[in-house]
């Protein structure tokens, strides 16, 4: 299902990731052994350098010596993908979205990470389970192609659905054209325990300078079919997305080759 350029990039990054993205948080993609896991192991004597957040004060008060809780290390990272399948995602944008989402899924599967995928519009489509094999991922994307396109984009419902399933640390990717996102931004508050990455699938028409007499009759979106004045909602949506994702927002031109455009997701940067 992947185009040839993305297949080659997947092979290259799979090899490079073993050096750059193994068990650290230096890059934009996170893998196993992030730190403390979620499964309790034991209580032991506190040692210099242990995280004070995990001190067991009950045992400490009984024994008179500092004790800390120890957990099994996480052996995989948690990755959540949100895929916009609303009406505004035309064929070019939808194809690019699916290609990138499949690429990210396979990349993380090959790293040993687990994947949860949510397709959203005016309804939610998800298997409701975590994927850990390529065959599971490919089966899901085959099913996704058969789903009906939704009339609207409900970011809030998608977030609430996923957060109810996993209210813990996760790396999340939002793949969308973020159409009318500015109208939802105020009610769309992301959990701070998630690391959020936005992948904006651009609509070429949003960036075109129109003649003055046409600006009063611009269609805002395929979803709403409402009319807009001379101030483009595109700039508002972009501002809202940048406010939410910050430097973790990349913009994708669906008419250009994808493999070069997604490379910023894989750049290593030092922790601040």
Mind explaining what this structure looks like?
It comes from Leptospira kemamanensis. The protein is an alpha/beta fold and 272 residues long. The protein starts with a helix and ends in an 11-residue tail after the last helix. The chain folds into two domains: 4-11 and 75-203 and 229-265, von Willebrand factor, type A domain (Rossmann fold), CATH 3.40.50; 39-72, no CATH class. It has seven helices and ten strands. The model is unreliable at 19-35, 212-221, 225-230 and 268-272 (pLDDT under 50). The chain has a six-stranded mixed β-sheet, with helices on both faces. The longest helix is centred in the middle third of the chain and has 21 residues, at 91-111. β3, α3 (91-111) and β4 (114-120) form a beta-alpha-beta unit. α1 packs parallel to α3 and α3 packs antiparallel against α4 (134-144). Helices cover 31% and strands 18% of the residues.
CATH architecture of the largest domain: 3-Layer(aba) Sandwich
CATH topology of the largest domain: Rossmann fold
Largest sheet: 6 strands, mixed
Q: Tell me the span between the first and last alpha carbons.
A: 38 Å
Spans where pLDDT lies below 50 across 5 or more residues: 19-35, 212-221, 225-230, 268-272
SSE-based structural type: alpha/beta
Secondary-structure element order, N to C: HEHEEHEEHHEEEEHEH
Question: Biggest sheet, strands in spatial order?
Answer: 5-4-3-6-7-10
In terms of quaternary structure, what is this? single chain
What is the count of structural domains?
2
Beta-strand content bin: 15-25%
């Amino acid at each position: 299902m992947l185009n040839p350029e993305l297949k080659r990039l997947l092979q290259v990054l799979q090899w490079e990731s073993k050096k750059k993205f193994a068990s650290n948080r230096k890059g934009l993609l996170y893998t196993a052994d992030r730190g403390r896991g979620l499964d309790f192991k034991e209580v032991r004597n506190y040692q210099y350098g242990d995280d004070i957040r995990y001190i067991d004060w009950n045992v400490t008060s009984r024994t008179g010596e500092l004790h800390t809780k120890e957990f099994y290390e996480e052996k995989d990272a948690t990755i959540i993908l949100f895929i916009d399948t609303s009406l505004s995602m035309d064929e070019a944008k939808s194809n690019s979205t699916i290609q990138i989402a499949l690429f990210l899924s396979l990349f993380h599967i090959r790293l040993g990470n687990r994947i949860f995928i949510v397709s959203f519009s005016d309804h939610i489509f998800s298997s409701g389970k975590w994927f850990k094999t390529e065959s599971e991922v490919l089966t899901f994307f085959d099913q996704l192609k058969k789903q009906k396109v939704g009339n609207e984009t409900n970011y809030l419902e998608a977030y609430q659905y996923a957060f109810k399933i996993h209210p813990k640390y996760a790396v999340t990717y939002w793949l969308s054209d973020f159409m009318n996102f500015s109208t939802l931004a105020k009610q769309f508050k992301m959990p701070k325990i998630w690391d959020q990455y936005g992948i904006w699938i651009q609509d070429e028409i949003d960036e075109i300078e129109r003649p003055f007499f046409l600006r009063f009759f611009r269609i805002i979106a395929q979803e709403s079919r409402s009319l807009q004045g001379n101030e483009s909602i595109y700039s508002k949506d972009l501002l809202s997305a940048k406010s939410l994702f910050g430097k973790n927002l990349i913009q994708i031109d669906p008419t250009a080759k994808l493999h070069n455009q997604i490379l910023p997701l894989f750049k290593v940067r030092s922790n601040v």
